[in-house]
Design a protein that fits this description.
Layout: H1 5-12, H2 24-42, E1 52-57, E2 64-67, E3 69-75, H3 83-88, H4 101-105, E4 115-120, E5 126-129, H5 130-134, E6 140-147, E7 152-162, H6 163-170, E8 178-183, E9 203-207, H7 208-212, E10 217-222, E11 225-226, E12 236-238, E13 251-257, H8 264-268, E14 292-295, E15 305-306
Parallel strand pairs: 3-6, 4-13, 7-14
Antiparallel strand pairs: 1-2, 4-5, 6-7, 7-10, 8-9, 8-13, 10-11, 10-12, 14-15
Catalytic activity: L-methionyl-[protein] + a quinone + H2O = L-methionyl-(R)-S-oxide-[protein] + a quinol; L-methionyl-[protein] + a quinone + H2O = L-methionyl-(S)-S-oxide-[protein] + a quinol
EC number: 1.8.5.-
Cofactor: Mo-molybdopterin
Length: 329
């Protein structure tokens, strides 16, 4: 069923020509063709909804292929951002502050072996090997809009499962009010740590109801492959209704805590980076208007797009009912 005019306006913004948007049926057909091509190349047969990590390289980044069934409930209808931009234009200050630094220097990151500690206010604390964590729940492919606080955006097909699946298995206690994410900080592999841009390791956090929301994705891949190092390998969180810095990369610890975590950007500049960091076109950052955004891959002369409240994910609005979002930005 095609969305009506009001729904399309909510999803795309009123200033986006329809010609810029790939029709869903074309998008799905293209993806199906690419997937069949990949299967032919590897000689593999994939079970629907199953998981496969193949040893052969694909035509993408050269990483291992990672299959997941598409969850059509979470497919943004926007045109996908080209893979070269998704992997070549990144903020990952552990490798440097230039957008090209992560792609240039993240090759030093070793993603095997890798462990993730899950602790704090839970009944079943555990330490997961990355491959065990990846198989904990069926993987899904979801196409999310990604919005940076610097007023640019992308559309990315991520692979992972709802963080809620992991949370239920470790059984939080009544004292668990927030989830704190801690990322790797290894100066031997991350040259950017020598610069005091932030207090390392990088720390982010969510309220428990945000972490439990089905949109919040524990993410292991993109574009049909395991996460490239510069995109947060081997595991990150993706929270599509918040600015990108909330989606912590290269996780080594997930802690359930009673008090609001002191997150890295909030600690560095509390007047600029709030804890919530919901995409909000009505609350500007001191250096970037949040009313519009530049879609990476659209071309230099393409008009900016209107930014949508909660990045277009209106289903999360109830999480913030009654809150002054100018105060809790």
């Amino acid at each position: 069923m095609k969305p009506d005019a009001s729904t399309r306006a909510a999803l795309y913004g009123n200033d986006i020509p329809a010609s810029e948007i790939t029709p869903r049926e074309v998008f799905e057909a293209r993806r199906h063709f690419l997937r069949l091509s990949m299967l032919t190349a590897t000689g593999a047969a994939l079970a629907a909804g199953g998981v496969r990590v193949a040893g052969a390289a694909t035509n993408g980044t050269g990483g291992q292929s990672l299959h997941a069934a598409v969850n059509r409930a979470y497919v943004a209808p926007d045109k996908l951002t080209p893979l070269k931009d998704v992997t070549g234009y990144n903020n990952f200050y552990e490798f440097g502050t230039s957008k090209s630094d992560p792609a240039e220097y993240a090759g030093a990151l070793k993603t095997r072996p890798w462990q993730i500690v899950v602790d704090g206010e839970i009944k079943r604390p555990r330490t997961f090997d990355i491959d065990t964590l990846m198989k904990l729940m069926p993987l899904e492919e979801r196409v999310y809009r990604h919005r940076c606080v610097e007023a640019w955006s992308m559309v990315i097909p991520w692979i992972g499962y709802s963080l809620a699946g992991l949370i239920r298995q470790v059984e939080p206690t009544g004292n668990a009010k927030f989830v704190q994410f801690t990322t790797l900080a290894d100066p031997k592999e991350m040259r950017g740590l020598s610069y005091p841009v932030l207090a390392w390791p990088y720390v982010e956090g969510l309220r428990m109801d945000e972490a439990m929301h089905p949109l919040t994705l524990l993410t292991f891949g993109l574009y049909g492959e395991v996460l490239p190092n510069q995109n947060g390998a081997p595991v990150r969180v993706v929270v599509p209704w918040k600015y990108g810095f909330k989606s912590a990369k290269s996780l080594v610890k997930i802690s359930f805590v009673e008090k609001i975590p002191l997150t890295s950007w909030n600690r560095a500049a509390p007047d600029e980076y709030g804890f919530y960091a919901n995409v909000n076109p009505h609350v500007d950052h001191p250096r970037w208007s949040q009313a519009t955004e530049r879609r990476i891959g659209d071309g230099f002369f393409a008009p900016k797009r209107k930014t949508l409240m909660f990045n277009g994910y209106e289903q999360v609005a109830s999480l913030y009912a009654g809150m002054d979002l100018r105060t809790y930005f």
